[in-house]
Design brief:
By secondary structure, this protein is α+β, with helices and mostly antiparallel strands. It has three domains: 284 residues, Beta-galactosidase, Chain A, domain 5 (Distorted Sandwich); 296 residues, TIM Barrel (Alpha-Beta Barrel), CATH 3.20.20.70; 131 residues, Golgi alpha-mannosidase II (Immunoglobulin-like), CATH 2.60.40. 20% of the residues lie in helices and 31% in strands. Strands 5, 6, 8, 9, 10, 12, 13, 15, 16, 20 and 21 form an eleven-stranded antiparallel β-sheet that branches. It has an eight-stranded parallel beta barrel with strand order 22-23-24-27-30-31-32-33. The longest helix has 21 residues. The protein is globular, with a radius of gyration of 28 Å. It starts with 10 loop residues before the first strand and ends with a strand.
């Protein structure tokens, strides 16, 4: 390692994009430090930046370090920072408090030293070293076109003695006016539940030790001004883009400093760096904006810029799980395919139970060959019929899990992840198969590729149904969660590279693996195993805090939910599901003719409007009455929007009054009309709808044909108003029975 490194970097960097400014201080060889992250400051001179830097300098205070704390993106203990350090680790107890000096800086790949660099979106990369500790460091800070701030760090061992790395976390400073914390909680079949608390002195730490970004993870951690909501309040938020163990945290110090941050949660001894080896942290994403919708929209624009992002022409999907479960019968499955095609379905997915000895969840997992007992002619008869009907075919896999009652487990018990010389506790009769072992990885990859080569498979539902407990590598038991996570990404990428156009859904007992990094590799999220529309109103609403609607698997289930036992009208089930990637999870072979006709109408409605529903901007409407869940999808050019007002409970008042329609151009005029009108039993039409009720004879005739309409539009159908009037005054709510929804189309007429 070179000795006596001369520090030459004395730079300032200003990044600006989409209404966000980031000012970085890289002066005097320090690590990049965020001077400002928030509202756009406009053009700044070097003197302006130097003034901002000097203005953040602190006077000498009692019981604090004399020179003041310099808080870098990777916080350093040696500066006097006594919060969570950016790098934790040691060499047999030494070199645990590194002091890095920046020796080189690149902005968008070009080397800089002592000047002001001001640009739009861009990437900053600093190289640093601590000679005494024998450590090298690379810190990357980027501002994306969508205004997302993201950072990443790489730690390298430069000397012969191994370095045990315990943690690398990055952090962003936030001002003291951010006084409240909001993050997410949840569980199986109840994902993405918001929780809010005061931002007090101490550390609000959310650790995820399940080996995947589980339903109870923080998901996105926000801090903001008191009472912030979807439309208002200044908010700063972070998300750790990693699908394995990870952390999010918010920390307020006695000094008044506040930070939010996160990183990978490393298990003891999981990363030990030999000379020349390095560790790279996950990206920490930061989103700033006014209101929670602004935070979400930055994430949405970033994800929509991915090279693998799907178009808005997403195929209507049916998954057969709740129709047949493990009972795979070809005539039944063909009949279901024919019924699905008749209502307009475009993709058919065969779920669990097609392989090995998998007749229930106790055996066969890990044996990725088509069961000759159930499928004597292979999957060809089913797939051929599905394709003849004009639908794509999709198939379920769970490649990271294994039943001990399987051929693979019997042949290779050492491939089961374990530690301590014991078999880990079972969950769903499953263990984890170690994809970090090259031979194990190869067998799984080759088995999946063989199926993709033989059959016309356009889509994989990739499941992950147990936590990684005692997830070590035999025979040592060394932790293997990180290697498992990396192997998962690699396997997904290999399959997609071998079969261009293949789509893969991330599913983990429902919504148990949802994060930006997994979405950089996959194409769809299974939000939850619970398809109850009442629950999905909440789960879809908050899953969209990170992921846009076109990535959310959103299905219409049977009338009675298989997970909650609740019964709902088809109107409510469909009106809730169309605000996502629409699918069906229902045995259509036993649906009534009226249900089939109504479902067909909803599928047609979705196809007509999916470019808007899956490509517009999300607006969630704040309402003081928690029994109302309201949202809109607004076209980027503000030419039209679809609004949903869902009654998720009984209000204490009879009439909710006027409902506002935000998000439109205040200067343009819009015609607002109700969509997919409900049956008279569940809705009372206000005068402004401009409809008349059908006669009993007309209604009976329509029911015969399965139509849901009991109202007939008149010449005065709907109303015309300015966007300003719709947003500031609104229109009278249509009273409906609880657990029902009314949709409206607002379309510009000038």
């Amino acid at each position: 390692m070179p000795k006596g490194v001369e520090v030459t970097v004395d730079a300032r960097v200003v990044l600006r994009s989409s209404g966000v400014s980031v000012v970085l201080d890289v002066t005097a060889g320090g690590l990049p430090s965020v001077v400002h992250w928030g509202a756009d400051l406009g053009a700044l001179t070097q003197q302006d930046v130097d003034t901002l830097i000097s203005a953040s300098g602190r006077p000498t205070m009692s019981n604090m370090v004399d020179d003041g704390i310099r808080l870098a993106v990777l916080p350093e203990h040696w500066t006097g920072w006594v919060g969570r350090p950016g790098v934790s680790g040691s060499r047999r107890g030494g070199d645990w408090s590194p002091k890095f000096s920046t020796t080189a800086l690149r902005v968008d790949g070009a080397a800089v030293t002592d000047q002001l660099i001001e640009l739009g979106s861009g990437a900053v990369e600093g190289e640093a070293v601590d000679e005494a500790a024998g450590l090298g460091l690379t810190v990357r800070v980027e501002l994306t076109e969508s205004g997302l701030l993201r950072s990443q760090a790489t730690v390298s061992n430069l000397v012969d003695e191994p370095y045990q790395l315990d943690e690398v976390v990055l952090a962003y400073p936030v001002p003291q006016l951010a006084s409240e914390i909001l993050d997410l909680a949840g569980r199986w079949a109840k994902e993405r539940v918001p929780q809010r608390r005061e931002f007090t002195v101490g550390t609000h730490l959310r650790e995820n030790r399940k080996g995947h970004s589980a339903p109870d993870s923080a998901y996105v951690l926000h801090v903001g001004t008191a009472g912030f909501n979807f439309a208002g309040g200044e908010i700063w938020a972070v998300h750790t883009g990693w699908s394995g163990n990870h952390t999010h945290y918010a920390e307020r110090m006695y000094s008044g400093d506040q930070v939010i941050g996160g990183g990978e949660l490393l298990l003891p001894g999981e990363v030990v760096l030999q000379r020349g080896e390095s560790y790279t942290s996950p990206w920490l994403y930061g989103s700033y904006g006014i209101g929670l919708d602004a935070i979400a929209q930055r994430f949405h624009r970033f994800l929509r810029s991915r090279p693998n992002h799907p178009s808005t022409d997403r195929p209507v999907t049916i998954n057969v799980w709740e129709a047949v479960y493990f009972d795979h019968d070809l005539p039944k499955l063909v009949a279901l395919a024919e019924a699905a095609a008749a209502v307009g379905v475009e993709r058919y997915v065969l779920d669990d139970g097609w392989f090995g000895a998998r007749r229930d969840d106790r055996a066969g997992l890990g044996d990725w060959t088509v069961s000759a007992d159930v499928w004597p002619d292979g999957l060809h008869p089913l797939i051929n019929r599905v394709n003849e009907l004009g639908m794509q075919f999709g198939l379920w896999f769970e490649p990271e899990m294994i039943n001990l009652d399987s051929d693979v487990a019997r042949a290779h018990p050492e491939w089961v992840m374990a530690t301590g010389g014991r078999v880990p506790v079972e969950a769903r009769f499953q263990q984890v198969i170690n994809l970090g072992i090259p031979e194990c990885y190869a067998i799984n990859r080759d088995a999946m590729l063989a199926l993709l080569d033989e059959y016309n498979i356009a889509y994989i539902k990739w499941d992950h149904n147990r936590d990684l407990i005692d997830a070590g590598t035999a025979p040592t038991g060394r932790p293997g969660v990180r290697e498992q996570t990396i192997a998962y990404y690699r396997l997904v990428d290999e399959l997609k590279a071998a079969h261009p156009g293949l789509e893969i859904e991330t599913c983990a007992s429902g919504g148990g693996r949802v994060d930006i990094e997994v979405l950089l590799h996959t194409d769809r999220i299974w939000v939850s195993d619970c398809i109850d529309p009442l629950e999905r109103q909440q789960m879809n609403r908050w899953t969209q805090q990170l992921a846009p609607a076109e990535l959310l698997g959103s299905h219409i289930a049977s009338g009675t939910s298989h997970t909650t036992g609740r019964s709902h009208t088809l109107n409510f089930r469909a009106a809730s599901a169309v605000f996502g990637h629409l699918g069906i999870e229902w045995d259509l072979t036993i649906a009534s003719p009226e249900e089939i006709d109504e479902l067909t109408a909803w599928v047609a409605f979705y196809k007509e409007h999916r470019s808007l529903l899956l490509g517009g901007d999300l607006i969630r409407i704040d309402d003081p009455d928690e029994t109302l869940s309201a949202q809109a999808i607004v076209a980027p050019d503000r030419s039209r929007a679809i609004y949903s007002f869902a009654d998720v409970g009984r209000s204490v008042v009879v009439m909710r009054g006027r409902l506002r329609f935000p998000g439109l151009d205040p200067e343009r005029r819009y015609r607002v009309i109700p969509l997919m009108l409900e049956k008279a039993a569940t809705v009372q039409a206000p005068h402004w709808w401009g409809v008349e009720k059908m006669s009993q004879a007309e209604e009976a005739a329509h029911v015969t044909h399965g139509a849901a309409l009991t109202f007939r539009p008149t010449a005065d159908f709907g109303v015309e108003l300015t966007g300003a009037a719709l947003a500031k005054v609104g229109l009278l709510h249509a009273p409906v029975h609880p657990e029902n929804a009314v949709l409206y189309l607002a379309e510009a007429v000038s």
